[in-house]
Each structure stands twice: as C-alpha cells, then as structure tokens.
Amino acid sequence: RAxxxxxxxxxxxxxxxxxxxxxxxxxxxxxxxxAFSGFDVVLKDINDELVAGGRARIEKLMRSAAKKGVLSxxxxxxxxxxxxxxxxxDDLTDADxxxxxxxxxxxxxxxxxxxxxxxxxxxxxxxxxxxxLSIEQIGSATKHPERVAGLHFFNPVYKMPLVEVVRSxxxxxxxxxxxxxxxxQLGKVPLVVGEGPGFxxxxxxxxxxxxxxxxxxxxxxxxAIDRAAKKFGMPMGPLELLDVVGLDVARHxxxxxxSLSPEPSPTPEFLQRLIDQGHLGKKxxxxxxxxxxxxxxxxV
Length: 300
Ligand code: 3HC
Fold this sequence. Notes:
Blueprint: E1 2-4, E2 17-21, H1 25-36, E3 40-44, H2 48-67, H3 73-80, E4 83-86, E5 97-100, H4 106-119, E6 125-128, H5 135-139, E7 148-152, E8 162-167, H6 173-185, E9 189-194, H7 201-217, H8 222-232, H9 238-245, H10 247-258, H11 267-276, E10 289-292, E11 295-299
Parallel strand pairs: 2-3, 2-5, 3-4, 5-6, 6-7, 8-9
Antiparallel strand pairs: 1-9, 7-8, 10-11
The structure holds 3-hydroxybutanoyl-coenzyme A (3HC).
Protein name: enoyl-CoA hydratase
Domain 3-hydroxyacyl-CoA dehydrogenase NAD binding: 17-195
Domain 3-hydroxyacyl-CoA dehydrogenase C-terminal: 198-290
C-alpha cells in the first residue's frame, strides 16, 4: 500500500502560505522547516503561552542551523521574519495548506478540521501530522474530505528526510499532488501510503522499539541495549529514541499498532507507568534517561 512518488504527476496548485496548527515539538519543527525552505508560515496554538513556547523552539532551531553553517545569520533572521504567530483562526484564512499537529485525540481533530473546512477557501489542502489516527475519520468531519490527507513528519523534522503522505479512501488526487510537491520543496522525500495502523515507517520502527522495552521489562540495562544498537549503526538507540519521540506519543502509536500483533506486548503498560509519573522523555526531563537542557544525561 505504499508508493514511491515517481508516478505522482506534478505540477500542482501553488502553495505560498502554510499554516501550522500546534506549537509543540512537531508543529514548531514543521513551521521551522517550512520557513527555512522559503514558505510564508503562520503558526497557531490555543493560547499565548503555547505560541511563545513554539516561537522559542523555532528561533533556537533556526539560529542553531545558522551556527552550524547551514545558512547565514541574516538568512536565518529573514526566514524567522516569514513566520507569523497567532491564536486566532482568522489569521489562517488565506493559507494554501494547513498542517495540523495538535493533540492526538480524534474528536479534537475533527472539531478543528470542521472549523477549518468552513473558514478556508475550498482550494486549501488540510493535512494532519497524526501518527496513528484515521485520516478518513478526521476528513469525515468536513464537507470536503477529498482535500484532507495525512502528512506525517518524523522527529527531528529538520533532519529526517522522509515524509509520509497519507491517502485515505476519500482523499483526492489534487490534494496528494499538492502535498508531494510541498514535501519536495522542503527538500524531503515524499512517500505516498494508504492509511492503516502505523502507516509504513512506524509499522517497521515500533516492533524494534517494542523489543527494546520488552528487554528492559525483563531486566536488561537501558545503556547496554542503546550502545549495541549504535554499534550496529543506528544513529541513536531505541530507548533514547523513545525518549525523544515522547513516551506519551509512543504509547499512542504502540496501542494502534498493537492491534495488529497476535503477541501481547509489555510496552503500553511499561510506558504508562512512566507516563503516570509525568516522565514523558526528553520533553519532561526524564524517561529512560535523565535529560538536561535538551542533552541526554545518565539512564534512570
Ligand atoms: N535546520 C536545518 N538543518 C539543520 C538544523 C536546522 N535547525 N539543525 C541542524 N541541521 C543540520 C546540521 O547542519 C546537520 O547537517 P548534515 O547532516 O548535513 O551534517 C544535520 O542537520 C544534523 O544535525 P545534528 O547535529 O542536530 O544531528 P546529529 O548528527 O547530532 O543527529 C539526530 C541527531 C538527528 C537526532 C540523530 O541521532 C537521529 O537521526 N536519530 C534518530 C531519529 C529518528 O529515528 N527519528 C524518528 C522518530 S519516529 C517519529 O518521529 C514518528 C512518530 O510518529 C512517532
């Protein structure tokens, strides 16, 4: 059900302004990548505090890209000036594409998509960055499900080259063309996939991370597993990666994919114990490892 995009025809309708909903790790990462690639961006969240948090993340990412020599300091400031920050849906109405990266709750996403459907031009494409929810069900809250699709980025957005373009049975060709074009303009590789638990990447990635959690639950050392995975050639070990993804996000994906597996997995329960204590990984300062100023410390 996955297609590399050589068979998707372009060009599509032009996208100049991208609206991103949700100023968390993924929303801010997507907004930064879009501004970095020259799009005008508007980033929306529900209150000023969340918007300010997203803005701080984006400024840090852009300035660190400049420090690493990816772009010049003036270019980084020019890209930052392309981003408008808001709490009002009125500022999104002229966007050609909306990428939603809010909380992973179907009813909340449906409300948001229904509102966007009413407020935005029918030409605008509405995409969700969901890792696990059904695009068809999200689209069913709108009058134009043909313009609703998934656009699944990986964390960290600036670095990960693949983006899954998720087509529900209701998604139209025009929306897919727009998304494939935008992903290419972001300098990334689009992979068109049908919807189904975990799409393609998480369906491959989660069994690997699942086995690591199973070994920890059996008493193995976090660092022994991660060190071995790195020696094998992975950029980071599976447990550090879980911390980076966020244990709450991982739990949500694991639940969806778990429905495919005949073997019961200890992962959801194990993650839930940590989540209940407020240990969500890198973003809360503690998961499998302790984290300080975004840097991994010793394992817990
Ligand atoms: N904008 C643009 N480019 C930037 C940048 C920015 N803000 N910041 C850094 N860069 C560039 C750097 O110049 C560097 O370029 P190069 O590769 O050409 O040299 C590159 O990006 C990497 O920069 P870093 O130094 O930050 O990266 P590291 O080499 O230290 O690697 C890592 C860190 C990218 C986190 C790496 O360990 C990694 O790839 N880990 C695995 C990540 C992964 O698997 N993610 C998937 C998670 S699953 C998911 O998200 C799905 C969900 O549904 C659950």
